[in-house]
Design goal:
Number of strands: 4
Strand content: 5-15%
Strand order of the largest sheet: 1-4-3-2
Largest sheet: 4 strands, mixed
Radius of gyration: 21 Å
Helix content: 25-40%
Number of helices: 4
Structural class: alpha+beta
Mean pLDDT: 75
């Protein structure tokens, strides 16, 4: 699939058809899973990274829009991560529990680029939250940062 990026825009259907994997490639990949391939399976560490724009979860008033289900859980988690980071330890707010495995607290951190990064030590999910500034969960001191 990496050839697709070199050929131009993915909307070009011709490029998309040309970049589909060959049947032999699919069979070779399946053979690894069945243990019949003599070539060792590559050591691939599967990590899921969630790239999130917090405003995508918000309604026009700035509140969380999803009312139930997985989208609500994910939105609540991201809001809690923003609140935890921007609180700065003033209230002793606990770190949010990973929305994916629901087992371990994550340690969100504010990065130099202004995004909030988080990672789950248990399930290895990780993420980057952008556009969190001036939301209801931005608890930085001072109101001058709010619009």
């Amino acid at each position: 699939m990496h050839d697709l990026w070199q050929r131009g825009h993915p909307a070009d259907r011709g490029a998309m058809r040309q970049s589909l994997p060959l049947a032999s490639d699919v069979h070779a990949a399946l053979a690894w899973g069945e243990g019949v391939c003599s070539t060792p399976k590559p050591d691939v560490h599967k990590t899921i990274m969630y790239i999130t724009d917090l405003t995508h979860f918000l309604d026009e008033k700035g509140a969380i829009q999803p009312q139930r289900g997985p989208a609500k859980a994910m939105a609540d988690f991201h809001a809690a991560a923003v609140a935890h980071v921007t609180d700065g330890g003033r209230t002793g707010m606990p770190a949010p529990t990973c929305f994916k495995c629901k087992k371990a607290p994550v340690a969100p951190e504010l990065a130099a680029d202004g995004a909030i990064y988080w990672g789950c030590p248990r399930c290895k999910a990780e993420g980057r939250i952008s556009n969190w500034e001036n939301t209801l969960w931005d608890l930085r001191q001072g109101t001058e940062q709010r619009s």
